[in-house]
Predict the 3D structure of the following.
Amino acid sequence: MNTANNTQAIKSVSNVITRESARQMSNDQLVKLLDLKNPVIEDIVYGDPRWSEMEEVDAGEVFYPHVPKGVIKVLRPKHRHPKCIKANPSYIPQRDVLRPLLAWWCANTRKLSMFMFGETGTGKTEMLLWFADRLNWPVTLTSVNESLRPEKVQGSYILYGDKTPYRYGSLAKAMKYGWVQIMDECDKGSGDLLSKLHTPAEYKPWELDDTGEIIEPHTNFRFCATGNTNGGGDMTGRYHTSQRLDEAFRRRFAFIECDYPSEAIEDSIISASYPSISKKTRHKMVKLAKEMRQALRAPQLEANALTPEELSKLQLPTERLSCAFSTRVLVAWADYMNIFGAKSVPIKESFDFVFGNSLDDDDRPAVMSICQRIFGESFNQPDEGDTNLGK
Ligand SMILES: Nc1ncnc2c1ncn2[C@@H]1O[C@H](COP(=O)(O)OP(=O)(O)OP(=O)(O)O)[C@@H](O)[C@H]1O
Ligand SMILES: [Mg+2]
């Protein structure tokens, strides 16, 4: 049966779909019903018990090679749900982030939600997506901003044919059906919205304003938030739209700080995705990223160093910067270097394209000085390749 006929057939039976008849369907048939965009049928599909069937698996297999095999068992949904999101295949998790996230996710009790914070481009959002993907966990990813209304996450009545059924919002669905809700950039939300999130964030039954229905949190429901600040407001001047979170909301979360990946991880990210970039250039790119970040954090690091020996150990660059050279920028640089032609176009061109051209006048001399120190004359030339057989 072709797709059009299939959809037609589904439409004609949509009036007689019940929870019982849905249970007899194959996964594909059930998922196809979502094409109808009928909130009532959507509830039947997402509420089907098969999505809550769990299997016990070795975390070492699921998170290979980042967790040792044979040590931890985890439960994961048995069936791949239509709300599962395929994650970035080149993502390499950081151990310091993976460990507490795994412990939190798999704990038997759920006292707190998860707040992942850190500078822009450190891989917070992708970490959560990568983790959920490996565990077959359905995801709902909501970009939070000042104008996001609570109705968007709770739900509202909609016009469907000649009826006005209630359609659950993203968070209501996640809570009811057992998905992970990622509130991306949560510290940018309005007070109105955030106060509505207090109840879901502590896994308490949530009453929907319009219908009065009380949503009990499903055991698979996970509430995660990301932000550039830890909810204490922006102290750096780089994240103007991040707000200080209400103390009561903040205390409903456990926090994981996501720093930029180590040089070794960033090197692996680039070598895996861009093997044509020479080892020599790759090392310099990663070193440059590290120095840019040190220049950004130097004032803070200096203030934290207790002795002159500690300070000299930090090997801080002399430059000071106010712009963040993130892993996102580093990966984009490698990407455009490749697109422009690594072996034919000067390295500086792709650098300027992804970063250099956006610099403030105050930062430009410091950035150029770091580039010169690390790349020297080769910055104005194409990647010359490795002279030996090293990759
Ligand atoms: N550990 C990693 N492995 C591979 N790629 C990474 C990693 N961390 C960051 N990246 C790269 O950086 C990009 C940005 O990651 P992500 O969107 O998760 O950052 P973020 O911390 O959520 O940033 P923001 O605060 O701006 O939302 C990714 O698309 C990927 O290219
Ligand atoms: Mg993000």
User: Anything to note?
Assistant: The chain has three domains: 1-53, 59-75+84-257, 263-380. The mean pLDDT is 92. Residues 124-125, 184, 226 surround magnesium ion (ligand 2) (CB under 6 Å).
